[in-house]
Amino acid sequence: MSETALHQAVTGGQDKEYLSFVLGDEHYALDITTVKEIRGYEQVTKIANAPAFIKGVINLRGDIVPIVDLRIKFNVGEATYNDFTIVIMLNIQERIVGIVVDGVSDVIRLSEEQVLPPPEFGVAFDSRYLHGLADVDEKMVILVNIESLITSEELGLVAPESVKDDA
Amino acid sequence: MSIDIEQFHGVFFDESDEHLDDMEQLLMSLNVESPDPEELNSIFRAAHSIKGGSGIFGFDALMNLTHVMENLLDKARNNEIAVTADIVNVLLETLDVLKDTLNAYRDETAIPQENIDDRIKILNGVINEQSTDAELSENGALPEISANTQSEGNPDESFGFFDDEPTSAGANSDDGFGFFDNEPIKEKLSYNEQAKSERNEDDGFGFFDDEIPHNSVASQTDASGSTTTETIETETGEEEQVFGFFEDVPSARHINTTLETASSNHSQSPGKQPSSAATTDLDKTTNTSAASAPAKPVAKPSSKKSTSRESASIRVDTTKIDAMVNLVGELVITQSMLSMIGQEVEGQVGERLQLAIDELQRNTREIQESVMSMRMLPLTATFNRFPRLVRDLAGKLGKQVELVLQGGSTEIDKSLIEKIVDPLTHLVRNSIDHGIEMPDKRVAAGKPEKGTVILSAEQKGGSIIISIIDDGGGLHRDKILDKARSNGLAVSDDMPDAEVWQLIFQPGFSTAEAITDVSGRGVGMDVVRRNIESIGGRIDIESSAGEGSAFFIHLPLTLAIVDGMCVSVGKQIFVIPLLNIIESFQPTKQQLKTLGNDTVLYIRDQYWPLVPLYDFMEVEDAALSPTEGIVVLLESSKKRFGILVDALVGQQQVVIKSLEEHYRKVAGIAGATIMGDGKVALIIDADSIATTYTSSQIKELLS
């Protein structure tokens, strides 16, 4: 953590921290408070009749946790699995979900002013699941509203009736 | 039919403890300025529950006090009395007395009768003082009697044994009921007893009427003894007053206990009192009291006893136990991972490691078993509500029915017990209403006039079988088939019996000629089956016309663990609950027939649908031809069918993990488990497969 970051953390500035990750060639970021842990990709147990982007379930220390491959879901990059494939375990509304990404890059700190409204189209993500865009080191980072994405009907991870409507 | 009512005492004590705690908390948080009516209602209900329970079990001292307390609370919740801080204090102190009384009953020690009487007086005083009702005429006698008690209740300094019980004395003066400052020791016993009896009558304890005179007489007789005996007589007199109006036996027993407890507290006591001591024999009571004043030490053994009881059973939040079950499941998995690794270690170290792992395996298995047993409760409590139900129902219907209970000590998971009560009740009612015939009909059929319903439970392997068997008329095959036809179900006359019986579980299915208030609306049986299936069980019926019918409920021992057969399909492992498996075999070509696009099995002179698991579960690299794999015949409550797997891996107990916790329900899958290598295996839900499977060929045709 840089000194300014440390200073901001201590003084409790309005900045929010994001975990940035890579899908194909695009840079994304999500609210770091939803991240439970980051781990390597491991063999999943396939689940019948599930869409292709739901890879299956794994055993996360006794919990049966679904794994979603966002690359398949949003058709970015190539869904290859090797020793460097990363799974970000998220903790959302007391549920644990793993998302497969090509790589995790950094923790970035952004103030509200740095977050720009998303364009209507042009990114793989539906604008409903976008929080905004930010320019970090000359790169565009897409800020994902991960909570609304994971609990969305489209992903079908959560049975509709159990979705808490606090979105 | 006699039921041993004492077995429910434990439950009553536990519940009453909870009610008292609730009341205490509610009273503490009660806003005196503007009391929440709902809170007052809750307090009232809690008091009412204790009163009801204590009335049933004959804990009359408890009942009397809660009754008066309830009166006060009733007035409070009806706004007839304004709740003040003083009243709350009085109520809280009453709770303390109630707790003492409850403990006294639990430990079978002397009831703090003085305290109870004081409390009743105080509460009545509050009611009278505050009541806007003009009931003074009725209760007007009270102050007079109280005054009597005061004037006659000479405090005898030599009886200093009340020092340990300051609650009432101290509280009384606070509340301004000054005349209680002196403990009302019953010197003038006869007078006091009469006063008490009068007061009790005034308070509306009408049921004392018959017994009070007897008590007074007895007390008066006792009072004629020497002064030194008075204390013990007071005890006995009160005990009789409390228990007198029930049978003589418990009262005698109780007095005996009191005497024994009292006497055994003194080194110089004459050993165990013979049970005849209970008969208020003057000589013997003189002996006892001569040993020394008995009342004070009673408090000591009661506290000792209650601590030992506390350790005998602890009420634990079930979520804590569930968490422990989960953790132990993890431990089992870790252990099996360790033993797999251990097998790879060679040499002397490997041997030693293996020994240690074996030890670990034994210990984990024992931990697992004991954790599982924590959730297990005997079915007795569930079964024991049925004699009453059967008696009432038989009486209402004019039938004669004898209920036989068997295997009540069979233990089953607590969560299952809660869910099995309704289906069981329904089935027992059905057996009596539809099964057992009227007495004249039974005699005409050459059967004994009195019908028999057997309710039994037994453990068979990993499942519990609860059966409801009656010797009534049996199910009417023709009626059921007719009804099925009129309901538009596909049936044929040559259906096997077992399938015909299963029809009664269809929604809206009732063959009862008339709808009674007992049964016949046709909403029952499908709910029964759904309830049973929701807890992983199934229900079978056997019936023989004219001889009776039997319902067998198969239940898993626990919801947390299932006995399963692990099978492999491709690279994946699935677990099939043993409960569903009939048999498994490698099919020959002759046993396989094609029916349109589907393959069916012909075995045991029956055609069975065949579900290839690789198709249903979308698994790649599996054995596609049935002759290369293994067919497992399954039986669910809905259908019987075979599933095709690659190979059997082995039988094992698995811990069921919920898929829904982090994902959602998946058709055909009951849950997941974690195998020894840490991988996830899915547990097959036979019922769900039976209802949801359509082969991929059919899917293609449809699309």
- Specify the CATH architecture of the largest domain in chain B: 2-Layer Sandwich
Number of helices of chain A: 3
| The CATH top-level class label of the largest domain in chain B | Alpha Beta
CATH topology of the largest domain in chain B: Heat Shock Protein 90
Please give the number of β-strands of chain A. 10
Which segments of chain A are poorly predicted (pLDDT under 50) over 5 or more consecutive residues? 162-167
Number of domains of chain B: 4
Helical element count of chain B?
Answer: 26
In the residues of chain A, how many domains can be counted? 1
Radius of gyration of chain B: 34 Å
Give the oligomer, counting copies of the same chain as homo and different chains as hetero: heterodimer
* Beta-strand share of residues of chain B: 15-25%
Specify the CATH class of chain A: Mainly Beta
Strands of the largest sheet of chain B, in order across it? 10-14-15-13-12-11
Q: What's the shape of chain B?
A: globular
- Provide the residue-averaged pLDDT of chain A: 80
Which structural class matches the secondary elements of chain B? alpha+beta
What class would the helix/strand composition of chain A place it in? mainly beta
Poorly predicted spans of chain B: 132-310, 517-522
What CATH architecture of chain A do you see? Beta Barrel
For the largest beta-sheet of chain B, the strand count, sense and barrel status come to:
6 strands, mixed
Please give a structural write-up.
The complex is a heterodimer of chains A (167) and B (703). Chain A has a five-stranded mixed β-sheet with strand order 8-1-2-10-9, with no helix packed on it. Chain A has three helices and ten strands. The two termini of chain A are 31 Å apart. The C terminus of chain A is likely disordered. With 167 residues, chain A is mainly β. In chain A, a hairpin with a 2-residue loop joins strand 9 and strand 10. Helices cover 11% and strands 41% of the residues of chain A. Chain B is globular. Chain B has 703 residues and is of the alpha+beta class. Chain B is built from 26 helices and 18 strands. Chain B has four domains: 124 residues, Four Helix Bundle (Hemerythrin (Met), subunit A); 58 residues; 179 residues, 2-Layer Sandwich (Heat Shock Protein 90), CATH 3.30.565.10; 142 residues, Beta Barrel (OB fold (Dihydrolipoamide Acetyltransferase, E2P)), CATH 2.40.50.180. Chains A and B meet through strand 4, strand 5 and strand 7 of A and helix 15, strand 17 and strand 18 of B.
